[in-house]
Amino acid sequence: MICSICKKGETSVVDSRPTEDGTAIRRRRLCVCGARFTTFERVQFREIMVIKKNGRKSSFDRDKLSKSIYIALKKRPIDTETAEKFISKISRSLEELGQSEISTNTIGTMVMEGLKELDPVAYVRFASVYRNFREEKDFVQFVDKLDVYKKR
Q1: Helix (H, G, I), strand (E, B), or coil: what is residue 70?
Q2: What is the distance of C-alpha 105 from the center of its chain?
Q3: 63 exposed, middle or buried (CB, 10 Å; 0-12, 13-18, 19+)?
Q4: How far apart are CA 103 and CA 108, in angstroms?
Q5: Alpha-carbon distances of 144 from 100, 125, 139, 149, 151, rounded to whole Å
Q6: What would the 3-class secondary structure string for 91-107 be?
Q7: Using CA atoms, how far apart are residues 117 and 49, in angstroms rounded to an integer?
Q8: Among 23, 38, 63, 72, which residue's CB has the most CB atoms within a 10 Å radius?
Q9: % helix / strand / coil in the chain, to the nearest 5?
Q10: Local confidence pLDDT in tens for the 152 residues of the chain
Q11: Residue 90 and residue 86: Cα distance in Å, rounded?
């Protein structure tokens, strides 16, 4: 494993344990330069191709999914462990579909449904990017449909 600090490949594993949900191995590493960092090892059951809205295909990238979810969760009261469990759940759900090609629409819908339960604000943030609202009225119409924000 290459150190993110000194870029050398001389690291050793200090601690290794499964994640809480058992879907990955968490390894604490130590580099000869003294830097410590964590890596995760996950099982990949099948190669999933993502079909973009324009028809292009690309390999499913868990890191890209993770990045978009963390942007939606930024400054929200959701800890990293809960976020990682959520990301793992989405990844597993995609693999369990048993399809080698999955549309961005399917992935986006899964993420939105999960965020709706996890954190309503993150849900609205993700939806605003995913649904690509063109005007303020599109956003207002979307928020008006939400049960979470309706006055009781």
Answers
A1: helix
A2: 15
A3: exposed
A4: 9
A5: 36, 15, 9, 7, 10
A6: HHHHHHCCCCEEEHHHH
A7: 27
A8: 72
A9: 40, 20, 35
A10: 888 889 888 899 999 998 777 778 889 999 999 999 988 887 766 789 999 989 999 999 999 999 999 999 999 999 988 998 899 899 889 988 889 999 999 999 999 999 999 998 999 889 888 777 778 887 788 777 776 544 44
A11: 6
**CA gap 145, 147 in Å, rounded:** 6
For residue 96, what are the CA distances in angstroms to 45, 101, 116?
9, 12, 21
User: Are residues 11 and 1 in contact, defined by beta-carbon separation less than 8 angstroms?
Assistant: yes
Structure-token match 């099948």, residue found: 46
- Which tokens is 25 given? 């191995």
Query: Which are the contacts of 113, defined by CB distance < 8 A and separation ≥ 6?
Result: none
Bridge partner list, 39 = 27
